[in-house]
Amino acid sequence: MPPLRRPFRHPLRLTLLAVIAASLTPLSLVRAADSSAELPAATVKTLDPIVVTGSRFEHSSFDLPASVDVLERERITAGQARVNASEALAAVPGLVVQNRQNYAQDLQISSRGFGARSAFGVRGVRLLADGIPATMPDGQGQAATFNLDMAERIEVLRGPFSAMYGNHSGGVIQLFTRDGQGAPSVEASVLGGSDGSWKTDLSAQGKPGAIGYVLDASRFHTDGSRDHSAATRDQAFAKITTQPDADSRLMVVANGLWQHDTQDPLGVSWGTFQRDPRAGEIDPTDTQSPKRTFAERYNTRKSIDHQQVGVTYERRFGADSVQLSAYAGNRKVIQYQAFSKGFQAPASHSGGVVDFDRNFGGLDLHWIGVSQLGNGSLTTTVGLEYGRSSDDRQGFENFIGNQFGVEGKLRRNETDTVTSLDPYLQTEWQSGNWALTAGVRHSRMRIAVDDSFISNGNDSGSLNYRRTTPLLGLLYKATPALNLYASAAKGFETPTLNELFYSGNGNGFNFNLKPAHSTHFEVGAKALLGSDTRVNVALFQVRTDNELVVDASSGGRTSYKNAGATLRQGLELSLDTSWKHGFSGRLALTGLYAVYDQAFGTVPAGNRLPGVPRATLYGELAWKDAPSGLSAAIETIANSKVYAEDSNIETPAPGYALANLRFGAEQQLGVWRLQQFVRINNLFDRNYIGSVIVGDNSKRYYEPAPGRNWMLGASVQYMF
Prior knowledge:
Blueprint: H1 11-24, H2 41-47, E1 50-51, E2 59-60, E3 67-72, H3 73-77, H4 86-89, E4 95-98, E5 108-111, E6 122-123, E7 126-129, E8 132-133, E9 140-141, E10 151-158, E11 171-177, E12 185-193, E13 197-206, E14 211-222, E15 231-242, E16 248-263, H5 270-275, H6 294-297, E17 301-317, E18 320-336, E19 353-373, E20 376-396, E21 399-400, E22 403-404, E23 410-431, E24 434-451, E25 461-479, E26 482-493, H7 497-500, E27 516-529, E28 533-545, E29 548-554, E30 557-562, E31 566-578, E32 583-596, E33 615-625, E34 630-639, E35 656-669, E36 672-681, E37 689-692, E38 702-704, E39 709-719
Parallel strand pairs: 7-11
Antiparallel strand pairs: 1-2, 3-10, 4-5, 6-9, 7-8, 10-11, 12-13, 12-39, 13-14, 14-15, 15-16, 16-17, 17-18, 18-19, 19-20, 20-23, 21-22, 23-24, 24-25, 25-26, 26-27, 27-28, 28-31, 29-30, 31-32, 32-33, 33-34, 34-35, 35-36, 36-39, 37-38
């Protein structure tokens, strides 16, 4: 990989970060392990987890030539509300996971800059739960469907290996839920906190015979940290696992998410944020109520009903195995956006109310074979993945006469169908100190539009995208405690349905968007220092052609276009360590130089990609005393400034640094297990921008984050 080009302009900041990293690591542990010694069993257990993301079979994360992090159950659940994946994913380098404080739009997740432009939901990053896609065939996903209460671990894959997951794989986030185990138990938990936030959860699990089960139901409510941002979310989850015989396993999972009339506070201008971070943007065209905000005038809101079921069957034939996963679901959404009456006047406009009913499903069938090749072991995966979604989509005006925020005249009525079919092949050969991985995937996606509302023009038509994405990775085991690796791949990113719905000039479906093609390179090292410390370092570069960028954005509606080439170069560093008396530490650092490498329109080459910070930092110092059940931790989260539009002229969201505290306690009283925690976020009450709406035409780019806020929680578990 060529040398990094202007990756960092502030050497002092890097020096400071290095000092922080050193302070988290006990001097007694900063030493290389003896290359002639075997690693202790405890090291393998705590610092070398087994992962399946990246290779689709159980694999040591230390021996995988890719950037992959594992968040264990304790990190996901300890002292957390378990409402948003951002609570845990903040500890992963290379990821930027922003809680918009807007439950109508979900989290903003980007991996090495991919997905940062998403106006809502998650795109550019593949989401899976227990091997079942939480991303639609077009590449749009919803992290809100993750059930964090029952999470066992989260695996996060970044870099070239993500290409093996097909279209829109700038990264992969895969949640694994717990299996029912042992004697039955029931657990109830409750928490409350700032801004009228509360959550209740009730779960049961067990494996009294051959069948394991997990059941969970929860309700979360918040009045919101911003004006017009209240939300109520109901979730339900069920999982059944069994082994029909000694060589097979069957899993059935079902989940549901219901959010009705979730308020959308919208973005605000820089002036409004400085005046009051909690306030909404006042609508200057409102003559009836001069101080009413856009969100209040149009009563911007979204209702979601999402249900999904998946089945996975795996059978082993000696060292080989075959796995079949199938899933199906339904998603209904009604969203009221903030479009003015004057903006809606053109007959071609689709209206300010989005109403769709989506049926989706798919399957993944793959075979894994293990054999000997020469003096090494060869593991080969051959598979086929299919996905389909069909939307009955309507659009309405969001006004009747002078009343706004109500369903008016029909402006759109169509059926949108997306199908994808991807065969893939991946193989790994290990011999001695070397491991070679190669793979190829051929992605094909078809989007068809059947327009039934043709008074504003017939938008019927279809698009076909296809691309072959190869992968090559090499790992060298320099010592038992040091692995060096390099990998390269081609990537493929098509427009999502939501990016195709609108053309920049206000017309209908945009059939002119092209897919983005990218080339990924990565080199890295994974090292074990002593018996209790692990360090991962990765350098990467991504070049992309036909990058998809925001063309126009207003009131919740965003259109896109193709730009020229972009360049991403960066560094990722993670460190995990533990030492005597129950202390442990984690550091995750990312430096990312992401720019337009080619001018387009009025945007010159060298401008920063919007929505992408140049540097992010997560640091944690934790303590846990097993005998007493007491625990405590302090967290630091820091992001550099973020531009909100391509010209880089408007005021960027400033960088910030936060501190969070958490305390916990646990008691075991016979068959009862009790837990309590208290958490304080943004300890020093900083005012900062939590996320940005990229390219908003009205310059309402900014989504403010909460000031100091607190949370108390308790749970009780009874074991039969």
